[in-house]
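Researcher: Let's do a round of design. I'm pasting the structure tokens now; please hold your answer until I've finished.
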């Protein structure tokens, strides 16, 4: 099935809160709906289905020797449930996962990897985030499991028995990480020699994002791959997106973020999308939820110049 035939979008609520120690991410799916995401997609002529909200499955994870870790079994249960949901809904539609903290990507990407395997195609991942999220269960010092999904998804050691078994691990060479500006020493070591493409904010400042993104998208197209995009609120500068518990100064600007979304739409390659780490409790009158909604609309075809301007 060609991507161009997958016009239908399915919204999947993923109110995951277990991966962070800051309350509020579980309100994210409702905030996206209230900010008008379903109607924004319909306005683009896309059929939209709201599949409701996923609930975690029971998962019997033993206590981990790293005592900093919290909500391990619950996060593993979310991973299992979201992997199943991602595989199921991606058969004939493009899923948009409304989060929830970034630990949810352990499930959504795992499910999309299974979908890619079923179609005999490789999965590629564009990771738009201030953080690498490459800690293992052994290296995390915060115990917040929103910092481990990429380590889990790429098959790094230490997850067996604590997280669901991976049927299709992700090749790091098929990951492009954009916007990094807060990376711990253990994560730096994991990135060294991994093969992942890394474009931190200095790289973007010096050379821009268009050429490296087009290079990555060219490889996705050449491999006839599936592309999953994981967009974290903290990819954006907190000056324009304050509704997140992991603010890091110096993030992407309004135009940089929209340019990335427009390039992704032009490529015609995006099969699935995560919108993660929105914390409405920390937002300013829905400002961040509306911006993330606008970015999603740009990814699915809306142009800035299509919108009327207004004077202040």
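Researcher: That's everything. Go ahead.
Model: Designed sequence:
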């Amino acid at each position: 099935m060609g991507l161009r035939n997958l016009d239908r979008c399915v919204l999947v609520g993923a109110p995951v809160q277990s991966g962070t120690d800051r309350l509020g991410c579980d309100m994210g799916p409702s905030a996206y709906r209230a900010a008008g995401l379903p109607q924004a997609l319909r306005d683009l002529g896309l059929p939209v289905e709201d599949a409701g909200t996923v609930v975690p499955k029971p998962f019997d994870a033993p206590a981990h020797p790293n005592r900093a870790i919290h909500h391990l079994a619950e996060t593993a249960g979310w991973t299992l449930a979201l992997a199943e949901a991602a595989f199921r809904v991606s058969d004939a539609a493009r899923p948009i996962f409304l989060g929830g903290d970034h630990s949810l990507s352990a499930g959504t990407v795992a499910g999309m990897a299974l979908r890619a395997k079923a179609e005999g195609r490789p999965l590629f991942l564009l990771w738009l985030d201030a953080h690498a999220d490459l800690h293992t269960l052994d290296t995390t010092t915060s115990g917040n499991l929103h910092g481990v999904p990429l380590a889990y998804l790429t098959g790094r050691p230490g997850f067996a028995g604590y997280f669901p078994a991976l049927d299709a691990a992700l090749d790091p060479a098929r990951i492009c990480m954009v916007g990094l500006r807060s990376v711990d020493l253990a994560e730096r070591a994991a990135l060294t020699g991994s093969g992942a493409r890394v474009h931190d904010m200095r790289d973007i400042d010096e050379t821009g994002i268009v050429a490296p993104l087009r290079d990555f998208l060219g490889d996705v197209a050449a491999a006839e791959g599936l592309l999953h995009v994981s967009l974290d609120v903290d990819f954006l500068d907190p000056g324009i997106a304050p509704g997140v518990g992991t603010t890091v100064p110096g993030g992407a600007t309004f135009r940089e973020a929209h340019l990335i979304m427009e390039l992704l739409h032009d490529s015609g390659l995006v099969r699935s999308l995560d919108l993660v780490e929105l914390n409405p409790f920390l937002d300013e009158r829905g400002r961040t939820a509306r911006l993330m909604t606008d970015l999603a609309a740009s990814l699915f075809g809306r142009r800035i110049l299509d919108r009327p301007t207004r004077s202040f």
